[in-house]
Amino acid sequence: MTRLLPRPIPTPSSLPAALGLLLAFTLLQTLCLPTGLVAQPLDDTVRETPAAYGDTVRLSLADAVRRSLDVSPEVEIERAGRSFAEARLGEARQSRFLTSFSANTAHSFAPSLDIPTTSTRPPGSYYLDPEIVNDWTVDALQPFNRVEVRAQQPIYTAGELSGSIRAARHGVDVESASMDIKRLEVARRTGDIYYSLLLVEALQRLADETGEVVDRAKREVQRLLEEGDEDVDQADLFEVRLTEEEYKRRVVEIRERLETARSALRRQLFLPDDVVVETADRRLEPVDFQIHPDSLAYYLDLGLRNRPELDQAEAGIKARRALVEVERSDYFPKIGFQATYAYSYTPNRPQQRSAYVGDAFNGNSTRTGFGIQMNLDFFQTRERVEQARAELNEVRYQEEAAGQLVRFEIEDAFRNVIIQKTNVESRDESVRITEEWLRNEQINFDLDFGNTENLVKAVRANLEAEARYFEAVNAYNMAVLKLLDATGTLTDDLERDIFTRSDD
User: In angstroms, rounded to a whole number, what is the distance separating the alpha carbons of residues 26 and 21?
Assistant: First the structure.
């Protein structure tokens, strides 16, 4: 299936001008590029011509995929989501110890004491004198400060803490699968752009050969006009000039599409604008890929084991199941240990040392002990549990749908590879047949036994076969990428550079 670079199209110098013109126009039609040939990068691709003084970067498909995965902001977005989930897991684990540990302060003004001059009570017994009262006059106000420290340690939560930790842990798995999904998407897009660039380069080489045919036809018409050939008139020259203009338009289209393809790859790799991107592959060839002997069953099993969408759904089910347990924990009492220490201070207010009397503006207090918390809103708890179960069922249905979708995508991609492989083999054989036909017509033409029109048909068929072959190779390569993507192994396979060929 491997083809060498296309050979220059043999066109005898004695080819009549009209037939040469017909051949040139046919070549232009053959090289008309289909719309949307080049895959799109992350952002909108604009037409750019690489700077003449920029560096040239030559990349293989594996190099391009590795770099795109390293620099892609899409992947980094998903990575940030996973980091967030990991931090949330850490928070859930830390909740096992000192669920609540806080310090609060209060700062204001407090009254002084209005102590009668006749009072004989010691400062620690002012509370026994009913004539001693708070003095709220402005001049008597004193700064007041209070600090309170609280700590709470859960002992039994009826599965709330353990369920929250499990849910957070599976949440990390969900985000990891999301990142794997995005990595596959970026790798697939990079591969499509890479092979599209190779296709446009191949068609450009065919366009260069077309230019030679157009130029040769023009010179032939001008020569025959100068010699006064009765079979050629000014109409032939005008037709040649029109064909030349059509060729120029086609050349510009191919050239700009080539630059767009290079720009797409450059944008995908986030390279500077003055960098010229070139492919390490010298030509567009079918990737070296062999279908597994076990056929479809092998790829179905491979996909069911590796597709991140299925891993994501499975992790989502586990997370939702844990959240159901968290909601159910509200049916049961929860036991914890709590300690509180508070200290208040206001100048000129002596502490009153009594087991029964305290001063809110000056003193300290401590409270410790075990406590039980019980949620008595059973009907509301029941509805919250039902909501959690509904969300669990939703993810279960999503997993079931994802499984069927994955199976279909794998089967569709598998059969498409077979179709495109057969297409490449058929196109390759068509090229071989047209080459044999062309050699036969050339020999007959050189021996004056041939028909000029048949020679033109042979040249035209050969060029069309070459162009269709390259398009078939491109379609086959993308079909292989799609199959690897459908089985979830594309990223690893491209990073391992499984398609690398040794130089011939």
Answer: 9
Nearest CA to 233 out of 217, 242, 221 is that of 221
CA distance 273 to 266: 8
For the stretch 327-346, pLDDT in tens is 999 999 999 999 999 999 99
The domain made up of 17-88+163-319+382-495 has a fold known as Outer membrane efflux proteins (OEP) (1.20.1600)
Reported as a single tens digit per residue, the pLDDT across 168-178 is 999 999 999 99
E-only strand ranges, 296-345: 334-345
d(CA 338, CA 104) in angstroms, rounded, equals 16
Is 7's pLDDT higher than 50?
no
First to last CA, the chain: 14
Contact criterion met (CB below 8 Å) for 85 and 175:
yes
What residue spans define the domains of the chain? 17-88+163-319+382-495, 97-158+331-378
Separation of alpha carbons 343 and 356, rounded Å: 17
Give 376: exposed, middle or buried? Use CB within 10 Å, 0-12, 13-18, 19+: exposed
Distance between CA atoms of residues 375 and 329, nearest Å: 10
Q: Which amino acid is at 403?
A: G
Among 129-143, 219-233, 235-249, name the most confident range. Answer: 129-143
For the chain, the 3-state helix, strand and coil shares in percent, each to the nearest 5, are 60, 15, 25
The span from the CA of 5 to the CA of 204, in Å, is 12
Q: What Cα–Cα distance (Å) separates residue 391 from each residue in 328, 385, 386, 395?
A: 14, 10, 9, 6
- At CA 25, angle to CA 20 and CA 29, rounded to 5? 145
Long-range contacts formed by 470-475: CB under 8 A, 24+ apart: 470/199, 470/202, 470/203, 470/284, 471/199, 472/420, 472/423, 472/424, 472/426, 472/427, 473/199, 473/284, 473/285, 473/286, 473/424, 473/427, 474/195, 474/196, 474/198, 474/199, 474/284, 475/420, 475/423
Q: Can you give the C-alpha Rg of the chain in angstroms?
A: 41
Complete DSSP assignment for 466-502: HHHHHHHHHHHHHHHHHHHHHTT-HHHHHHTTTT---
The DSSP code for 104 is E
Report phi then psi at 472, rounded to 5.
-65, -40
- C-alpha 185/C-alpha 256 separation (Å) is 26
Q: Which residues pair with 338 in a beta bridge?
A: 152, 369
Q: Which residues pair with 148 in a beta bridge?
A: 104, 342
- Give the Cα separation of 113 and 141 in Å (integer): 10
Cα 238 to chain centroid distance, Å, stands at 53
- Residue 423 has a pLDDT of 96
Q: What is the mean pLDDT of residues 483-494?
A: 91
- The Cα–Cα gap between 122 and 103 comes to 34
